[in-house]
Amino acid sequence: MTTTHETTPMKHRDAVGIVRTTLAKIGRYVFIGFVIVFFALPVLWLVTAPFDQAPALRLSVPEFTLQNFQVLIDNPYALRSMWNSVIIAVGTMAIVLVLAALAAYALSRVRVPGRDILLYSLLLLSSIVTGTAAMVPIFVLITELQLIDTYLAVVLVMAGGLLPAAIFILKDFMDNTPKSYEESARVYGASPLQILRHVVVPIARPGLATIAVWGVVQVWGNFLIPFILLRSPEQFPGAVVMFTFYTEGGQPNLALISAFSLLFSIPVVLLYLFVSRRYGFRFYGGIKS
Amino acid sequence: MTRTSPTDQEPDEQPVVETAPKRRRLDEDAAGLGRTRASAFVAPALVLIGIFLVFPALWTLYLGVTNWQLTGLAAAEPEFVGLDNYIDALTNDRFLDSVFRTLVFVLGSALIGQMVLGFTIAWLMRTAGKTLRGIVETLVLMGWILPASVIAWLWLVLLDRREGTLNSLLGTGETAWLLEYPMQSIIAFNIFNGTAFAMLLFSSALASIPPSQLETARMSGAGTWATLRDVVFPNIRGHILTVMLLVTLWTFNVFTPFLLTQGGPGQETEIFPVLIYRMALETGQLGRGAAFSLIMIVINLAIALIYLRVLRERRQK
Questions:
Q1: Chain A residues inside the 8 Å CB shell of B117
Q2: B139 CA to chain A: closest CA distance, Å?
Q3: B75 inside 8 A of chain A by CB
Q4: What structural domains does chain A harbor?
Q5: Entry pTM
């Protein structure tokens, strides 16, 4: 009697435990399955539709063709906008890289009074004065400067927003590079600019590469700033021009949109792979405008 | 976020003397920049930041009290209108509705969506096999690194009324998701777009928990909930706060839902950034838009200051 009394609850508990772990396991895989579907479903279209003879809105197994890329090449705005994106991204990146490297180097090597406060308040400022929050004053400023519809406007505004974070990261980076090379270079009579170019830049290359890639990715994907500052379709970068691809009937031109989306995404994905392979994906923190 | 290593040296600047103090001077200013040249190196960056970041922010103070217009008479000679723009805003249903919608959007997509989903993925992937982990993390990251315009198109395709992927999968006929469930749609879209950050940060936070503590919890038979409550959450409290504030700040400043719905139907998805855009740049009321911009900057500032405070408390511990 007593033995059965003691074992039954035990057995019962075991059974409940097994059911529970099984349910937990099932729940877990159902959840993972859901996550995969949620994140894969939209992206699948990006991989299939560009090669589909009749790209529809719904997912389908493509009847393979490269025709859509021919459509893209024939479109007067598509490739041009890609080139515009390159100009704006590379221009912004160059300005940010040069100015941030100069500033970060000086701030890292010479103690200016109030330096840390300056750095922190700049970083704070760049995270609160986002393009979205400041779109009205930026628009009015660019209008008053008569720079509306110029690449220069987009480049300058983007650079101003990216610089604080770039300086902050680069300064941190340069703080951790050894100073002994600079000292010896200086003993041999090199000027500060020569030292920066021939000694510091090679040492700080990983940091500079990170900033360059980060800058390009930020600008490449930005929609709002070029959208409010540019007027003529010939000037639009890829991120904006995509929303003008409609047929005469007012339907989205899916052949063009799908092929363009794929081409437009490739550089970003490649840059991401490059950085994560080479330096680890470290720059995800902080700043995503 | 990055730290600065305190390189506290003597602030006084003297010409380099070729004797005993030389060694120390070199440590401090290895390239011999000197303060003048150092300032020249910093100046160009500061000028650019000053014109295109600091000035616009401060200028909203002035623009916001004028009736500046995109076109017409007030475009040529804007007038001072005092606090009218702000009073209008606070008594205007469109403004208040937009604030409420922004709250729903941030709460739903950032706090509940990205944080909970990001944490759950990070937690499950901790014990998952390498392949599965690689697949899931890559997919989640894709939603983040692809250009926002491309992602917007992908979601337009997914949610389209006539032949959208979702309708053909669920067999929901011609459901116009963006018209019938506009807010839910942009929330799902933003979760897709932003979960990666929470996932990445939580993964590294979970990896920093001492394995012995998790082991102890497992040995003493603690279930998942008990482990999370007693071991995991206390350990990563700081990370949770960090993710919460950053994700809130970013989501509040996100403009991309505009690409899906343009704020519509009607004003149903008119979150704050979209309201500013429509008010200032579509209908041309720049003065009023500037007042809204200032409100937004002030809210951003409040979130950022809380964040800095949390960071400082964490560092002091």
A1: 35
A2: 6
A3: no
A4: 2-65 (no CATH), 75-279 (1.10.3720.10)
A5: 0.84
Block residue for tokens 């982990």: B133
Q: How many CB pairs under 8 A join A and B?
A: 304
Structure ipTM: 0.84
Q: Sort out which chain A residues have CB atoms less than 8 A from B128's CB and list them.
A: 32
Q: Does the pLDDT at position B288 exceed 50? A: yes
CATH 1.10.3720.10 fits B84-316, yes or no: yes
Query: Which of A43, A156, A223 shows the shortest C-beta gap to B48?
Result: A156
Q: Which of A128, A186, A200, A281 to mutate to test the interface with B (most CBs of B within 10 A)?
A: A128
Signed CA dihedral, B122, B128, B129, B131: sign only: negative
**What is the DSSP code string of B35-72?**
HHHHHHHHHHHHHHHIIIIIHHHHHHHHHTTB---SSS
- Sort out which chain B residues have CB atoms less than 8 A from A130's CB and list them: 253, 300
Domain boundaries, chain B: 26-76, 84-316
Q: How confident is the model over A47-78, as pLDDT tens digits?
A: 888 887 777 766 666 677 787 888 788 888 88
CB atoms within 10 A of CB A287: 22
Measured distance CA(B280)–CA(B273) in Å, rounded: 11
